[in-house]
Specification:
With 490 residues, the chain is mainly β. The protein has helices at residues 174-177, 201-208, 297-305, 336-339, 399-402, 424-427, 443-454, 486-489, and strands at residues 4-9, 38-51, 54-68, 73-80, 86-89, 113-115, 130-135, 139-151, 161-172, 184-187, 215-219, 229-233, 246-249, 259-267, 270-271, 280-284, 291-294, 307-308, 323-327, 331-334, 345-346, 356-358, 375-377, 381-384, 394-397, 405-410, 415-420, 459-461, 475-483.
């Protein structure tokens, strides 16, 4: 949900630089060719959630590299369909979350210019506008610059590059930005979600390259068997789809989200009450790690999907129901492998009340420490409680859906394509998993080894929401602060 507000403030002058800026040509329909595809490999990052020294879950992110300015300044960003701005840390950011991240310097870019929200150049010595952007998880405060943004590292021009307005963050919230190694966010929501189309990366990119299709495709995996995730611009990779694409038209495009109508939701073949009034919609969000379900129906679904873990080490192998999400053109089907949290939880342990602890001495403590403690498997669900007009019957189709389906986003025709992804999970022989109890994830030992190298002391991060292993970069609100100096008032 985007809420745009204007405010006045008086503060110190912002950084100043100057250069020219070009408006993009209008986009034209054209067939996709292999030469017009730009693929960015996405790095999957897992961060452990601990409760009383025990790893109980993981939160994940996917990020790839972009270049900003000339000479190029490289950043690792989350490509997020739930927000609409390019956000990178500024060299003036003093938040703890900015420590260790790459930071953008407008003074070091020959093509960068400090601007206000309306695109007007900031006069040297005067104040510049600021913006507060709130996400489902976290928030940033930023100033504005216009500069060149390129897909990939070390690039300053050519295909996959565009000039646009950027948000350089001067403040970033601790969660989730401090927890992960990525630097910023590249929003891929519709242009109507941005402050203006000048802030929309894909709006400009598709306009600059008429030979390329105004589409991008997303392939996300859990990294098993060395399988890499990627995002493709200028079309999509047909080899990533097993059974072709089924297209669903966007609903309420003026809200700026890639949201599709949902006709019904079924668990184990039984229809839930939530969508019987036909008002449900689902936002396809590459920046959300869970399946978001409208309250209070999230509790009903959680109970229907929960299972006793028994002696399982991997809850994705649990014998649990199929979830069906019926769209206008097809039905999304999710199996336990898609929606279950990997690790079983002991009775009484709740992810939402846990504390993230980073330490250089932690070891994994298996559940056999309490022989009589029952263990259960729970789904990766998160409650969604948004008012009209975005809510109240809004689902967020995050990683549980995106791990199973290759998704394509059509900018011109305002539609989303879903196709069963050609990945290891969808093509393996299910008989290989019979009677298998699973194993602890490789990330556990690797993460602990890395912490022994890089972390000097224990740091506790207080809980900031009700579901700490969920990450939501869906843009919630935008507040522009129009700053006026005393000299301007005079």
């Amino acid at each position: 949900m985007q809420l745009l507000l204007l405010a006045l403030a008086i503060s110190l002058p912002c950084t100043f630089s100057s250069s020219a800026f070009l408006d993009p040509p209008r986009n034209e329909d054209s067939p996709t060719t292999n030469n017009s595809l730009h693929k960015i490999q996405l790095k999957r990052e897992s961060v452990p959630i601990r409760r009383q020294g025990t790893i109980v879950s993981f939160k994940t992110s996917y990020s790839g590299v972009i270049s900003v300015g000339s000479p190029s300044q490289d950043f690792r960003v989350v490509f997020d369909t739930g927000s609409a701005h390019v956000v990178v840390p500024a060299d003036t950011c003093d938040s703890d979350a900015c420590e260790g991240k790459e930071r953008y310097s407008v003074s070091q870019s020959e093509t960068g210019t400090a601007i206000n929200a309306d695109g007007s150049e900031v006069i040297e010595g005067e104040l510049c506008d600021q913006v507060d952007i709130g996400f489902g998880t976290g928030e940033v405060t930023g100033e504005f610059v216009k500069d060149t943004v390129c897909l990939g590292e070390g690039r300053t021009s050519g295909p996959g590059c565009t000039e646009m307005y950027i948000v350089m963050a001067v403040k970033m919230s601790t969660q989730p930005f401090k927890s992960f190694g990525f630097d910023g966010i590249l929003g891929l929501g519709l242009a109507s979600l941005a402050l203006s189309p000048d802030f929309s990366f894909f709006h400009h990119l598709s306009g600059h390259n008429p030979a390329a299709s105004a589409q991008f495709g997303v392939f996300l995996t859990e990294g098993e068997a060395g399988e890499e995730s990627e995002i493709t611009f200028g079309g999509y990779d047909e080899a990533r789809v097993l059974d072709g694409l089924k297209w669903s038209n966007i609903a309420r495009s003026e809200q700026g989200y890639w949201q599709v109508p949902i006709l019904s939701v079924r668990v184990d073949g039984i229809e839930m009450d939530v969508c019987k009034d036909r008002t449900c919609r689902g936002v396809v969000d590459t920046g959300t790690s869970h399946l978001g379900v409208p309250v209070p129906y999230d509790r009903d679904m959680a109970q229907l999907l929960a299972r006793d873990a028994g002696d399982l080490l991997d809850c994705r192998l649990a014998d649990a129901p199929t979830v069906e999400i019926e769209l206008e053109s097809m039905t999304i089907t999710l199996q336990p492998h898609n929606y279950m949290r990997r690790l079983p939880l002991r009775e009484g342990v709740k992810i939402g009340s846990s504390t993230l602890v980073v330490s250089n001495k932690e070891e994994f403590k298996p559940d056999e420490g309490s022989e009589n403690a029952s263990r259960h498997c729970s789904a990766k669900l998160m409650p969604v409680n948004l008012p009209e007009p975005v809510g109240p019957k809004l689902f967020i189709l995050g990683e549980p859906v995106l791990h199973r389906y290759y998704t394509v986003y059509d900018w011109d025709k305002l539609r989303v394509g879903f196709g069963l992804a050609n990945n290891v999970a969808n093509t393996r022989d299910v008989s290989e998993l019979a009677n298998w109890k699973g194993e602890l994830p490789n990330e556990m030992e690797r993460l602990l080894m890395q912490q022994r190298v890089t972390v000097q002391k224990k740091v506790a991060v207080p809980a900031e929401d009700d579901d700490e292993d969920s990450i939501v970069f869906m843009q919630m609100d935008v507040v522009v602060n129009v700053r006026i100096s005393m000299r301007q008032i005079a």
